[in-house]
Specification:
Layout lengths: L5 H32 L2 H26 L10 H6 L3
Keywords: Coiled coil
Length: 84
């Protein structure tokens, strides 16, 4: 097995954090939809499930954020635009 270069590790961390941010946003948007659409019995169960998922994502985000090297900068959008 090959060792991961520090820059690759930081890129991986950036990708993980971006993914977790997107997932959290999607779940928060779903929470808003549930609040507007569902009846109370269905709503409570759905909201509890969504809240549990958001908390798990937030815990992972905080865990992985601890590995970020503040000196390593990457703009993932720009990085992927530059790939051929």
């Amino acid at each position: 097995m090959q060792e991961m270069a520090p820059a690759d590790f930081q890129k991986l961390i950036a990708l993980v954090l971006a993914d977790l941010t997107i997932r959290r946003t999607l779940l928060e948007n779903r929470e808003q939809e549930v609040n507007q659409e569902m009846r109370s019995l269905e709503k409570d169960a759905e909201l509890e499930d969504l809240d549990n998922q958001i908390q798990a994502i937030q815990a992972d985000y905080h865990h992985y954020r601890d590995f970020v090297d503040p000196n390593f900068k990457i703009d993932l959008d720009q990085y992927y635009r530059g790939m051929k």
